[in-house]
Amino acid sequence: MTNASSPKQAVVIGAGLVGALWTVFLARRGYRVDVFERRPDMRAAGYAGGRSINLAMSVRGWAAIDKAGIRDKIEKVAIPMPGRMMHAADGQLSYQPYGKEGEAIYSVSRGGLNLELLQIADAYPNVQFHFEHRCTDVDLQNPQISFEDLRTGQHKTVEAPLIFGADGAFSAVRYALQRTDRFDYIQRYIEHGYKELTIPPAADGKHRMDPNALHIWPRGNFMLIALPNADGSFTCTLFLSFEGEISFEHLTNNDAVLAFFNRYFADAVPLMPTLVEDFWANPTSSLVTTQCYPWQWQNRILLIGDAAHAIVPFYGQGMNAGFEDCTILDTMYDAYGGDWARIIADFSAQRKKDGDAILELALRNFIEMRDLVGDPKFLLRKKIAARLHERYPGFLPVYSMVSFSNTPYHVALREDDHQNELFRRILALPGIETNWDGPEVERVFTEWVKP
Amino acid sequence: MTNASSPKQAVVIGAGLVGALWTVFLARRGYRVDVFERRPDMRAAGYAGGRSINLAMSVRGWAAIDKAGIRDKIEKVAIPMPGRMMHAADGQLSYQPYGKEGEAIYSVSRGGLNLELLQIADAYPNVQFHFEHRCTDVDLQNPQISFEDLRTGQHKTVEAPLIFGADGAFSAVRYALQRTDRFDYIQRYIEHGYKELTIPPAADGKHRMDPNALHIWPRGNFMLIALPNADGSFTCTLFLSFEGEISFEHLTNNDAVLAFFNRYFADAVPLMPTLVEDFWANPTSSLVTTQCYPWQWQNRILLIGDAAHAIVPFYGQGMNAGFEDCTILDTMYDAYGGDWARIIADFSAQRKKDGDAILELALRNFIEMRDLVGDPKFLLRKKIAARLHERYPGFLPVYSMVSFSNTPYHVALREDDHQNELFRRILALPGIETNWDGPEVERVFTEWVKP
Fold first, then answer.
1. Domain ends where: B286, B303, B322?
2. Which value does ipTM take for this structure?
3. End-of-domain residue from the set A363, A390, A422
4. Is the pTM of this model over 0.90?
5. Which of B170, B182, B187 has its CB closest to that of A189?
6. Residue pair A214/B212 in contact by the 8 Å Cβ criterion
7. pLDDT tens for residues A313-332?
8. Which residue from A72, B321, B338, B403 puts its CA 20 to 30 A from B382's CA?
């Protein structure tokens, strides 16, 4: 058993966002950490693919950043997005705040954030990074891990008493666990793919749209979104079915692509001078979700982040969930006096339901973003929810619970079911469109809120 | 593209039941077949583990055996089981026929059947078996497959234009497909494990219970079953939860095992002189189910049998489903003039829903076997279903549809849902216990049967 009296030594597989942040937490505890990463060192090689993907950081992400004591280093690159800007088909804009005054999610560059975390981790003398090391095998019995050094083609084996698999949705560590008895595993691709596009800065270097919003063009079964970057550009993502009537399979030439964008995203087209070039240069990527259990092998190997719970990006919670893994583990480290056997077993057992819940919430939010955001009933629901929250501060809309609180995800999912029932009743009230702030709504709410 | 004009050459991975039978089908078509199997040649080495597992062969299995023209070789080792013999807690027996007069499922030895199929396949000069070859890698791009020869430790690579992955629930071929984009995959272990036990022949060499029945000791959340062997013995299987109040985790010593058997299976204990020894000698094994899609890689690699659809054994359909795969493929071969590109794509697309359906039916049948078989309402339902079938031959109980017909599994599952609704209505009739053959039942049936 590895516990407080064992040598403080750990291996982290994966130097992505979660692997790098978790390395910082371990390093602060005085652990000697060896981090193995398949990709080249991005500090020398630049971001993978050179694309400037961005992510939405919300309260759970910041909580981990705070706990690691590095907020000042991260904050400077984050752009607040206090609400959504909805682009209707006719180009009309409408703005919906995400939460209360002062609450926002933050657009951060994945590459920039990863780079910053690598630098923070690497500043610890007890941290050693090993880039371009591909994990080829995990021998669970010893345990030891084999790597191929991609620069030399040489193979090496590392003994490791304590291993964290932070190697993402296609985790090699998880593939090894998958072969063990009674390991449950699901990988499921959604029917939609995505393609990244860009809105470059205006001639004066400024953003071509309001930078303090997450822009959405909801179109029923598909959507375009845009998040601001610090350099004045926006990174856009088109989410569209791979197959079907309106889908990637029909966008096979310049004319088809332009006709599609002109028809559905007409106000965005003038902002995207390299639309067609970008469309062909950037891949059409798939979206995988994974669920597994247990997240551990005995008391020595633990999966964290996407390796344990890869979700779809529609709630902006993938990174936030992985960062929250770090917060919880670091808190357990204190609570259990560094007894990894207990930490690993309890984390796997307790956190699993949160991983499943944020997956379900993210899948539901895809429907909301692409479909409901433009629906009058949905807008009415948002308006009533905000008013109820003003009047009864104990009533927290689920979006706020997920994005602006640290409430466990599985509680938020239960609350989502519960609130869906409330609004089913409220929206069925006669004349609700005009009486949305009336006594009947109060009455339904008072009844619903009773235990 | 591999089609009728290409060299007739194929690789089969796995020489288990489905791999061996499918090799016979290919060999009959004049294909040169190389079969690779991880285990030693059972003709020299005996059955794996020496245990005499048996299986229930029903109509779908026989249909494939017939189509391969080898019924006479298989029939001699099969013992008909026209019904279930239910052992109540007090030792009372009750018999339920599975179907009509003349219908039966058949107990066959897994090892004996596999051996027979290997011999039939090996008699073809165009078939070459390669035992003790572990598949270590599948290079999908070329495609070629790497093996380790377990006798010499040497590695070899085989080019293969057409590959059938018949390598079971833990298929190496499927693990390779799993890494491809948009491949959906689920592996899920049920909470129950199983342990094999034995009832040896009586002193006179005869069976100690009625050999022409599948014996069941249903006990709610767990059960014991026994299938007859040709040598006068029965192979028993205990299905029991791994954890919980009544579970394997509490059966930790001789006293606990004996107390458990004496309490729940008292009439079986005197028939099992080596019960305690067998309990410790035989492993407690887990039960995995897998689902995946697509079942193919391009037009070159196809998963069949458990590699494509591993299910639980509670409907006795695992082997039957795999054998039916062979029947369907061989039928498609004629229909599509040997065009493997079409066969592979269509098989994967059409057969998937049958694989999912028989998994669901098998999971439902576990509830029925362990729980409902001893339930008076369930027995009443069986009685009414049999009467309705007598009166309206078009009304086929789902068990018969699955076991005594070749109706696609997905149709049987739909019918199961539909019939569950019928019996929900019938069993809710007042006084149904006495009026089970009355006009009210007729009325409900007539209404239900309307389209």
1. B286
2. 0.92
3. A363
4. yes
5. B182
6. no
7. 999 999 999 999 999 999 99
8. B321
